[in-house]
């Protein structure tokens, strides 16, 4: 896998194809990082109490993480950066 902070020339792309090298240019890299961040924020959280997945729930005060095995486990966590006093549509 080859990562660049700019863009690849056509020659580089052809060369990479021949060598079966994955090219990550700037825009692809950003997409990748963005996808990972999103995963981390919304999908990849695990309950520290019981190890089940955390899921997004929408409560009285906005969105928060709740344990998937609720009501067996009542762990909740604020979503960082979200404004829980604000009603999100
Ligand atoms: Zn739990």
UniProtKB/TrEMBL annotation:
SUPFAM superfamilies assigned to the protein according to its UniProt record, in alphabetical order: Zinc beta-ribbon (SSF57783)
Give all residue intervals belonging to the DNA topoisomerase type IA zn finger domain. Answer: 46-80
- Which terms does the record give in the GO molecular function aspect? DNA binding
Gene3D superfamilies this protein is in?
Bacterial Topoisomerase I, domain 1
Q: Where is the Restriction endonuclease type IV Mrr domain?
A: 1-33
Keyword annotations from UniProtKB, A to Z: DNA-binding
Q: Which Pfam families match?
A: Mrr_cat (PF04471), Zn_ribbon_Top1 (PF01396)
Q: What is this protein called?
A: Topoisomerase DNA-binding C4 zinc finger domain-containing protein
- Native species of this protein? Clostridium yunnanense
Identify the taxonomic lineage of the organism of origin. Bacteria, Bacillati, Bacillota, Clostridia, Eubacteriales
């Amino acid at each position: 896998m080859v990562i660049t902070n700019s863009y690849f020339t056509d020659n580089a792309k052809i060369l990479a194809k021949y060598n079966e090298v994955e090219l990550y240019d700037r825009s692809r890299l950003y997409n990748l990082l963005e996808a990972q961040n999103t995963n981390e924020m919304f999908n990849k959280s695990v309950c520290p109490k019981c190890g089940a997945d955390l899921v997004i729930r929408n409560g009285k005060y906005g969105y928060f993480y709740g344990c998937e095995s609720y009501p067996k486990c009542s762990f909740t966590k604020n979503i960082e950066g979200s404004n829980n006093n604000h009603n999100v549509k």
